[in-house]
Write a structure and sequence with these properties.
By secondary structure, this protein is α/β, with parallel strands linked by helices. It has two domains: 66 residues, 2,3-Dihydroxybiphenyl 1,2-Dioxygenase, domain 1; 72 residues, 2,3-Dihydroxybiphenyl 1,2-Dioxygenase, domain 1, CATH 3.10.180.10. The chain is 15% helix and 34% strand. It is built from two helices and eight strands; from the N terminus they run βαββββαβββ.
Length: 139
C-alpha cells in the first residue's frame, strides 16, 4: 500500500491571547519560536522533523475576541494533542506545570505500552498529553 504521508508537520491552534499562549508553549514546554517577531502568527518548533520541514505548533490569534471557546470537551473540535517527552525530562516537566499552578493529570495510554503519560490544559483549554518512555518498565 502506498504511504505518501511522511509525518506530521503542524498542529494549528486558535488562541485568545498570543502572549499567554506563547508563555505556555515556549516557556513551559520549551518550544523554540521560529517565525519572525513581526509575524502575528507564531510558529514553534516541537521537533526536528525531516527534509527542512520541522514538527510545529502554530498559534493563531482568533479573529473574534467576543466569542468564547466551548469549555465542555465534547463541544470542541480538537480532543487533545500530544508531545513526545524525553524520559529524563518527564518529571521535571510535570513539576514545571505544577509550579505554575496548573493541574497535572495522570493517565494510561490506551494503545502504547511501556510509556508514561500526563495531561495538562493550555490557557485556551486544549488538552496537551505528554508521553514518555517508562524506563522502569524496561527493566
Amino acid at each position: 500500500m502506498r504511504r505518501p504521508v511522511a509525518g506530521l508537520a503542524e498542529i494549528v491552534l486558535w488562541v485568545r491571547d498570543i502572549e499567554v499562549a506563547l508563555h505556555f508553549y515556549r516557556d513551559l514546554f520549551g518550544l523554540d519560536v521560529i517565525s519572525p517577531a513581526e509575524l502575528p502568527i507564531k510558529f514553534l518548533r516541537a521537533g526536528e522533523g525531516a527534509n527542512g520541514v520541522p514538527e510545529m505548533i502554530v498559534l493563531v490569534p482568533h479573529p473574534d475576541s467576543s466569542s468564547a471557546f466551548p469549555l465542555e470537551k465534547a463541544k470542541r473540535v480538537l480532543h487533545h494533542l500530544a508531545f513526545r517527552v524525553e524520559a529524563g525530562e518527564y518529571e521535571a516537566l510535570q513539576d514545571t506545570f505544577r509550579a505554575q499552578g496548573l493541574e497535572v493529570r495522570s493517565g494510561i495510554h490506551p494503545l502504547l505500552k511501556g510509556v508514561r503519560t500526563f495531561y495538562v490544559d493550555d490557557p485556551d483549554g486544549n488538552e496537551c498529553e505528554c508521553i514518555s518512555p517508562d524506563l522502569s518498565s524496561a527493566q
